[in-house]
Specification:
The protein is mainly beta and 124 residues long. The chain has a single domain (5-109), classed as Alpha-Beta Plaits (2-Layer Sandwich). The protein is built from one helix and six strands. The protein has one helix spanning 69-80, and strands spanning 5-15, 31-36, 42-52, 56-67, 85-93, 101-109. The chain has a six-stranded antiparallel β-barrel with strand order 1-4-3-2-5-6. The longest helix has 12 residues, at 69-80. The radius of gyration is 16 Å and the shape is globular.
Length: 124
């Protein structure tokens, strides 16, 4: 029986951006994945849309940055228990507007021992 996913972090900043946000092809609500690097950072990967020779569209999975230490601390119990997590892109600021930023939301099965009070039940 699969449990409903609940928000763990509604908006977490991705640090050390390794891409040009304006030309990456990232969109709001795009899925992302979490990977642990060799040095212990939580890397965020997403599907980047590129054109081959300027003509042929293609998509590649690429590390776009990493989560900060505070976010890592919050997620550590979920990772230790291998809880499935769902990440989505929820905020994008391209370079031509201001300093580039990318934010993700992180959802998973609610675990009372990891977080504060349970999320409010939605009315039917």
């Amino acid at each position: 029986m699969q449990h409903a996913l609940h928000p763990i972090l509604g908006k977490a900043r991705i640090h050390g951006l390794a891409l040009n946000v304006a030309t990456s092809g990232l969109c709001l609500n795009d899925p992302a994945e979490l990977h642990i690097s060799e040095d212990g950072q939580l890397q965020v990967r997403a599907r980047i849309r590129r054109r081959l020779l300027g003509l042929f569209p293609r998509q590649i999975q690429r590390v776009i940055g990493h989560l900060g230490p505070r976010t890592t601390t919050i997620l550590l119990p979920y990772l230790q228990e291998e809880t499935p997590l769902r990440l989505r892109i929820v905020g994008l600021t391209p370079e031509y507007i201001a300093a580039p930023e990318v934010f993700v939301s992180i959802w998973g099965n609610f675990r009372p021992q990891f977080s504060g009070p349970p999320p409010l039940a939605q009315s039917a």
